[in-house]
Write a structure and sequence with these properties.
By secondary structure, the protein is an alpha/beta fold. The protein is built from six helices and seven strands; from the N terminus they run ββαβαβαβααβαβ. The chain has a seven-stranded mixed β-sheet, covered by helices on one side. Strand 2, helix 1 and strand 3 form a beta-alpha-beta unit. The chain is globular and about 45 Å long. The two termini are about 20 Å apart.
């Protein structure tokens, strides 16, 4: 069971394979792993104790950032993300970031997003500039309502930690998002936008 894996000097945390989206560009549709992992598919989800035990075995000497991002949406296990982050912070001063689809308000309506203030940064997959195209790109189980939830989440967490949006530049992406419109939306919300190259 791969919980931690590396890409360069960044270490990633793989907590779950569950996800409320089925993005057209998702890299997990093209293989079993990324980075140095043999596979990121989990036979079961790791417990907090298992995560702690694996973490203390890791050599962190060259790690500059630790990121919640695996073959699933980390906030499917939102409370665990907070617990793991708190533990990591007790062990090291390395920056900790969350990569998320930003729709935890629909996944876990009772979760208090203020708890995510323990994170140093949150990266939110914007993927489009409007609800209709967002749903076409992400195929979320929540339909077009997911987009407005994403924006609401971004506003809330932007108050207490560093936040930025990302969009993926992949073949045919122009059907789903317009760079200038995404930039305009990001600027309006006071959140920076990062454009990522497709790695699948």
């Amino acid at each position: 069971m791969t919980i931690f894996y590396r890409i360069g000097n960044q270490m990633y945390i793989n907590l779950t394979n569950r996800c409320s989206c089925d993005c057209v560009f998702c890299i997990r549709a093209n293989g079993d792993s990324v980075g140095d992992a043999d596979t990121l598919w989990l036979s079961r989800e790791p417990t907090l104790d298992e995560i702690k035990a694996d973490f203390v075995k890791e050599d962190l000497s060259d790690v500059i950032e630790i990121i919640f991002c695996g073959y699933g949406e980390p906030l499917e296990r939102a409370e665990l993300v907070v617990q793991v982050c708190e533990f990591i912070k007790s062990e090291t001063d390395i920056l900790v970031r969350l990569n998320t689809n930003g729709i935890v308000g629909l996944i876990a309506p009772d979760f208090d997003v203020q708890k995510l203030s323990v994170l140093d940064a949150i990266s939110i997959s914007l993927n489009s500039d409007n609800a209709i195209d967002y749903h076409k790109a992400t195929r979320s189980i929540f339909g077009e309502t997911a987009f407005n939830e994403l924006l609401s989440f971004a506003q809330k967490v932007n108050v207490f930690t560093k936040v930025y949006f990302t969009v993926v530049k992949f073949p045919g992406c122009e059907k789903f998002w317009n760079e200038q419109k995404c930039k305009k939306l990001s600027e309006k919300m006071g959140i920076s936008l990062r454009i990522r190259e497709y790695s699948g």
